[in-house]
Known about the structure:
Layout: E1 2-7, H1 14-25, E2 30-33, E3 49-54, E4 69-72, H2 78-81, E5 92-93, H3 98-116, H4 119-128, E6 143-147, H5 151-160, E7 166-171, E8 181-185, H6 190-195, E9 199-202, H7 216-221, E10 226-230, H8 239-247, E11 251-256, E12 276-278, H9 288-304
Helix pairs in contact: 1-9, 3-5
Organism: Temperatibacter marinus
Keywords: NAD, Oxidoreductase
Protein name: Glyoxylate/hydroxypyruvate reductase A
Amino acid sequence: MIILCYVEGYDAQIDELYKGFFEKYIPGVDFRAWPNWGDPASFDEATDVYAYVWAPPQGLLAKYSMINAIFSIGAGIDHLTADPLLPKNVPIIRMGDESLKDGMGEYATMAALWFLRDMKNVSAWQKRGEWQHHFPKAPSQFTIGLMGYGLLGKAVAKRLKPFGFKLATWSTSEKDPEEGITHYRGSTCLKDFMANVDMIYALLPQTTETTDLINKTSLRWMKKGSYIVNAGRGNLIDLPTLVDAVKNGHIAGAMLDVFKEEPLPKGDPAWLTEGIIITPHVAAITRPDTSTKFVAETIIKLTKGEKIETMLDIRRGY
């Protein structure tokens, strides 16, 4: 078996980061870091070949037509689907390792408790040297709405449930009933979903349908004093409109980890808007140890013909 690895910006570190783990989880594997993939014509047709990549140059994967499946080093796959030459008949698998699920759950917990306990004002009082009494809501009085309820959304719900938060979800597909969770489905239910939550935690993929889903109109549906957290994809939010909504007080605060343009330009008003917390795309980090294990386990499932939960559905775009 051959693993072809490309990670944008990490050429010199790929062997150090990944090779040992792949050799641990797939004994006898031939691990090849770019640019040492080899001539495509030299590959034995009988050898299984898998790509493990992040943001490869457009056209690179098309040269290696023998690839059995492409693994994205991350939950997002737009860095792959943007390639017009990407092979259409090769399965694409989004990362679904434990580090991603843990990271999303931790980030959601941090955001929920920060906003629940009104830490923006607590921090301001400290800077002014003020000892202020305040009475934050209990988790049972605070509804968190998960936009997107796939593998990561379910991991987030699992983390938040023990705190006693009320939970709601919005997605495009029907979900099985769950105790303590209200499910909303489809565009006709989006308004009701947004109007009935205190904090949105967005985990939606990047598609045409999700672009600017949180905009001037949909922000008006939310309760005055509610919160928005985006750890999904940057295309989801019309950022200037959100900045205005925070400044005028309709949205009490936001925590944003992803943006349409990254890094977020230094002059962007979001940086200096009181009530907006910006983190540099670190909500959930793909760790070499857990991601390589996920790849090894998923390859076994592929060879057995088992269903892969994180495989790209071309029809849905994620």
